[in-house]
Amino acid sequence: MHRLAETPTRLGDGSPVDYAWGVRVTPAPYGRVITHGGSWPGWLAKTVRVPERQVAVAILSVGAEERAVSDTGLRLAQILASRWG
Length: 85
Fold this sequence. Notes:
Layout: H1 2-5, E1 24-28, E2 31-40, E3 43-50, E4 55-62, H2 66-83
Antiparallel strand pairs: 1-2, 2-3, 3-4
């Protein structure tokens, strides 16, 4: 089931979309980057996974900027994924 949930879809005209079932899936030189973020007033969370490199990062924050939380998760996953493989 997780393969289906992580499979990006296409629009009606056939154009690709990098969004699957609640996660964004983007290609990278070291494998697929699967991300999901969420928030609750004052709280932010971001998960980033690179399954092909067995890398997973979770960032939780109180009061940080959304862009900073997202960028930090992506950068940590990129560093880890680039070192293994």
